[in-house]
Amino acid sequence: MTLLDGKVAVVTGAGQGIGAEIARELVAHGAQVVIADLDGDAAHSVAEELSGTGVACDVTSEEAMHALVADTVRAHGHLDLFVNNAGTTRDASLKKMSVADFDAVVTVHLRGTWLGVREASAVMREQKSGSIVNISSLSGKSGNPGQTNYSAAKAGIVGLTKAAAKEVAHHNVRINAVQPGLIRTPMTAAMPPEVFAEREAAVPMKRAGEPKEVAGAVVFLASELSSYITGTVLEVGGGRYM
Ligand code: NAP
């Protein structure tokens, strides 16, 4: 018997990076996984590798998020875990950031996570069971220069997680957040190498994290190992900002 035997999970933004690794770890622990991503080809390719289902889904679309949850329940009969992982960055100083850059980032992270929480919790509260994990960031705790949009959105995910967790706790639905630090993915590969090196040097463990190390925290929050844990924020940052 593995940790997630018989569980059905959805991971957004799972076509690459942390989301794809979360999907891999969930499958390794026995779950069936629906891989959703803006890029349908990327979602299908990860799904093929994991014998899961790949879906093109824009998390900012109310219709698409409703369909993602409804189709999963239609196909599998239940929904046990929903991971709001999709994310994007449009870094710029306050002097240079446009309203469009601010809105785009806040919309993907905050509206996307809120839609995922609303749709998934509606099913889970009827089932009287389920776990939702929202991927925030240590940037939302510490604030990163050049990321006023991203830091605001990631801090917002913490408030949303706690408010929603209080609303559905008595239905046996748990909602938690994970705050990764500096993790090696296509998102951070886009950073200037000197900025990456400077951030890595500031990590007490003296290295960036791997996507698998974030996925391990998600597996814990998804499973019965965390059955009495809700509304919390689990930091996966090698000791950064403790
Ligand atoms: P990534 O490699 O850029 O992957 C993010 C995925 O989300 C991409 O496949 C992207 O698709 C997808 N996505 C973007 N907008 C979407 C939308 N509207 N609907 C559906 N999917 C969308 O980034 P990552 O590093 O794995 O990050 C995953 C999560 O962890 C994000 O929430 C990020 O903010 C968070 N995080 C990352 C780090 C880090 O150091 N890497 C640290 C803290 C938190 P496209 O490629 O097609 O746009």
TrEMBL record:
InterPro entries: KR_dom (IPR057326), NAD(P)-bd_dom_sf (IPR036291), Sc_DH/Rdtase_CS (IPR020904), SDR_fam (IPR002347). The keyword Oxidoreductase applies. PANTHER family: 3-OXOACYL-[ACYL-CARRIER-PROTEIN] REDUCTASE, CHLOROPLASTIC, SHORT-CHAIN DEHYDROGENASES/REDUCTASES FAMILY MEMBER. The keyword Ion transport does not apply. It comes from the Bacteria. PROSITE patterns: ADH_SHORT. Residues 7-186 form the Ketoreductase domain. One of its GO terms (biological process) is fatty acid elongation. Belongs to the short-chain dehydrogenases/reductases (SDR) family. It comes from Mycolicibacterium parafortuitum (Mycobacterium parafortuitum). This is Short-chain dehydorgenase/reductase [Gordonia sp. KTR9]. GO terms for molecular function: oxidoreductase activity, acting on the CH-OH group of donors, NAD or NADP as acceptor. Keywords: Oxidoreductase. SMART domains: PKS_KR.
